[in-house]
Amino acid sequence: MPTRANRSPTPRSRGQRVRAPTRWTGPLASYTGDPISGIQKVLKIVADEFCDERLVDKVELGCPLNNLAQEMSPLDERFRRRVAIVFESWIESFAQALERGREDGSVRRDVDARKVSTFVVAAVEGSFGLAKNAKSAPLLRENLEVLTDFLESLRAAPVRRRRR
Fold first, then answer.
1. Mean predicted confidence (pLDDT) in 26-48
2. What domain count does the chain have?
């Protein structure tokens, strides 16, 4: 049995609920269209929020989750695990959406939903880091637009019907 010193309870074991920030999962959970468009919508919402000229300093502060992960993970294992749970729920929400798309034919069958979702989250977080360092909201918007284009490449080809 682990001792108190080396036991790190997860937030769930302590009765806490840990979820991805709703800015990433909320719009997707309520989106009724195809999942690629849903994830693209989430990226646009975030780009609009962080790139608003009235909130120019917001991008300079970066992504709060990424900031915490970068600064605290090497210092506090329990905290690192909690942040990992948040990242995992974010990745899982995207993966579930892409998997639904594979099932309904809107996402290519060869797409690995889990790998793509992990990549998308990593690309978003990296984009926030670059934009924060450059103090550039346009850089964040451009990167999220490129990510949106990448997602477009995951669409299944339309089914062509044979003429009789």
1. 85
2. 1
Cα distance between residue 110 and residue 22, in whole Å:
29
Task: Give me the domain span that covers residue 34.
Answer: 22-152
Distance in angstroms (rounded) separating the CA atoms of residues 27 and 142: 21
155, pLDDT greater than 70: yes
The CATH number covering residue 76 comes to 1.10.357.10
In a domain, 160, yes or no: no
Q: Find tokens 């989106």 and name the residue.
A: 31
Domain presence at residue 162: no
- 3 part of a folded domain: no
User: Taking 80 as the threshold, does the pLDDT of residue 52 lie above it?
Assistant: no
Burial class (CB in 10 A: 0-12, 13-18, 19+), 162: exposed
Q: Which residues contact 37 (CB under 8 A, 6 or more apart)?
A: 31
Strand partners, 107: 155
- The candidate with the shortest Cα–Cα distance to 87, out of 129, 45, 126, 122, is 122
